[in-house]
Amino acid sequence: MAGLAGRPARDPGSAAADGGRGRADGDEPGLFVVLFVVFVAERLGGGAAEVGLLRGVQAVGGLLGGLLVGVLARKLAPGRLLGVAVLSFGVVAALGWNGPYVTTAMVFYVAAFVVVGVPGVIAGAGMMSVLQLHTADEVRGRVIATFVSLSDGGQALGMVLAGVLTPVLGLSVLLNAQAALYLAAGVLVLATVDARPLLSRRAR
């Protein structure tokens, strides 16, 4: 598909290389950053070591996602890639947050946090691809900078909301609300994006 300014848009594979890499942790909402520690302490009975372990294995999943995103970006339209990744993230998050009702075995959560790191990176690459493909060349830098700034601001706001809302609504409600929002966002993206492969859209 041609860019809005008439020049070809960038290949989503290149967006995966420069836009998705290194954002596995940075794309997480600030609400999660705070509640994750509370979840490990209260629901799993863990401490600093367990928090560090689960954060570390999520990075392993991010590396796996980085290996997969180049292949998937050539098979799926960028919006479709984003929708599938966000929906997958929501499913895994919902399973993880509600896992303590079944088991608190650390091996389960190690596996869950490895898996959740994969769609986290793929979603970041898909988002950058969508932004680049649907933005005119002359304003693309400003649009991406605005997006990153809003994302960072949202993280800060989420950290504040976590402290304010946890005593009122409870940990489970907030964590399941996070998973539900990811699920809803994934469904919305899949229902509205152009599912045609990139090459077919460029040929128009």
Quick rundown:
This protein has 204 residues and is mainly alpha-helical.
Q: What does this 3D model show about the protein?
A:
The protein has 204 residues and is mainly alpha-helical. Helices cover 75% and strands 0% of the residues. The chain is built from 8 helices and no strands. It has helices at residues 12-20, 30-43, 48-73, 78-97, 106-133, 140-169, 171-192, 198-202. Helix 3 packs across helix 5 and helix 4 (78-97) packs antiparallel against helix 7. The longest helix is centred in the last third of the chain and has 30 residues, at 140-169. It is globular, with a radius of gyration of 18 Å. The relative contact order is 0.21. The model is unreliable at 1-26 and 199-204 (pLDDT under 50).
Number of helices: 8
Which structural class fits the helix and strand makeup? mainly alpha
Q: Which segments are poorly predicted (pLDDT under 50) over 5 or more consecutive residues?
A: 1-26, 199-204
Residue fraction in strands: under 5%
- Sequence of secondary-structure elements: HHHHHHHH
Distance between the termini: 7 Å
* Mean pLDDT over the full residue set: 81
Largest sheet properties: none
In total, the number of strands is 0
